[in-house]
Amino acid sequence: MKHFKTLFLKEDSLHQVHHHSGDDSRNFLVDTRTGENIRSFDQANSIACERLSENAGGFGRRSLLKGGALGVLSLSSMMLHESIYPRYAYAAEPVGDGTVLVVVYLRGGADGLSLVTPYNDDHYNANRKTTRKSLSMNGAYKLDGTFMLAPELSGLKKAWIAGDLSIAHSVGIDNNTRSHFSNYIISDRSAPVQYKTGWLARLLDATYNNESQFRAFSHAGRVSGAFYGHDQEILSINAFSDFKVSTSFKDTETISAVASRISRNVGGDLGASVKTTLGAMNQVQEISNAGYKPENGADYPDTALGTGMKDIAQIIKANKGVQVVTVDQGNWDTHRGQADRLNTLAKDLGDSLGAFYQDMGALRMQNVVVMTVSEFGRTTVENQSLGTDHGAGNFSFVLSGKATGRITGGSWGGLKNDDDKDNAIRTDYRSVAAEVMSKGLGVDSARIAQIFPEFTPKPVGLLA
After folding, report:
1. Model pTM?
2. Sequence ranges of the domains in the chain
3. Which one of 60, 74, 285, 339 is separated from 407 by 20 to 30 angstroms, measured CA to CA?
């Protein structure tokens, strides 16, 4: 395909849209600030020039165009490619109040109705046979006149009683597809399709960069898609105990020595990636070797999530500059035989988050916000395989010393609706995330508008 010959800088909000039909006339640019389609070189160059001139003193940090902008513009043959991420023009001084954000992904579509149950809802009670939760269960905890906390989440009772746990009901994403893959992409991007970065990447662009190797990382087997497009290296760490060079070589030519030599002698992305990873490994091993004893009698479960939350607590306390971290809990896709499997997952979730809350203590939790995200909820009706299928609205937990300690999301309308198999979505999850950023992290509304373009958040009431 032919590319538009125009000036392109990462800060210019121009994104190329192209077709694979062979008809180059159908290719065009989109100005992601205005949504306008751009179909000529002259128009694209004019916008690029205008964006350049917005910087005080001409070009600021874009001074690679020394020698005269108009001359370079007229001679430029730099090309736009779809793989280049559109960037955003934030104010000169990014903000943030130092609060750590921990995003817990419940992968597979958690059945929120089995976690926070509308125990007196007639539709729920009539359509859940083996997966129904009730107040008569040992350990069930009544939250209010509508909802109860499942017995398996008893680890979160202390936080609720202290007012440090808020719960939003009927949370979901716009354009819910009921597809794991599609919903991951939609929620991770949280922006129109022409925006190629994840919302956490845009959050990092909008907040103070402390240059720490642990400023942002995924405590999982892969980097969260919400980090995609960020300029700096994002670490993926399965567990601190395993985050080290492993080799069976007996001689001096170990993997560690080879990797160190690469970092010294190889430039570019590979060298930078190796250097970052080795540096992070050394710091993690120093922390791990020092030993860690959770405080306040906290007892983490011996699970992947429990280990993850324990590691996160440890590195926060080590003052390594953590700002944003994600952690995964998988296997929530409970189409068959849901009861036992979900109960195990729910207990792991409640015990892990409860141990983290207890370990951090009241003072530290003033500077931490934990939020849960799942790609969709599950059907209100149990299927013939004694499980539940892909649904719509879900529940989102927010754990923090800044929490309001309430169930939020507007007036509960019940589960009986035009589509009886769904808990209807009443709160867009971006409103939950926006409130976490504004009231939790101290991000102003102008920056939130850039993190969630073309979306106006509504107050949810999760954080004070």
Report:
1. 0.78
2. 14-75, 100-451
3. 339
Classify 100-451 by CATH class: alpha beta
Q: How far apart are CA 242 and CA 257, in angstroms?
A: 18
pLDDT computed for residue 425 by the predictor: 95
For residues 125 and 146, what is the distance between their CA atoms, to the nearest angstrom? 13
Backbone angles phi, psi at 16, to 5 degrees: -85, 135
Helix axes 304-317, 338-365, angle to 10 degrees: 10
Residue 261's pLDDT is what?
66
Q: How many CA atoms lie within 13 A of 410 on its CB side?
A: 13
Residue 388: pLDDT band (50, 70, 90) is: very high
The pLDDT tens digits for 53-94 are 444 333 332 323 333 333 333 222 222 333 334 444 444 455
Q: Alpha-carbon distance 356 to 309, whole Å?
A: 6
Find where tokens 């590691």 sit: 311
In this model, does residue 185 exceed pLDDT 60? Answer: yes
Range list of H helices, 367-444? 429-435
Cβ atoms of 238 and 220 closer than 8 Å: yes
147-149 and 116-118: which strand pairing? antiparallel
Distances (CA, A) of 404 to 28, 51, 157, 371, 401: 47, 42, 15, 14, 9
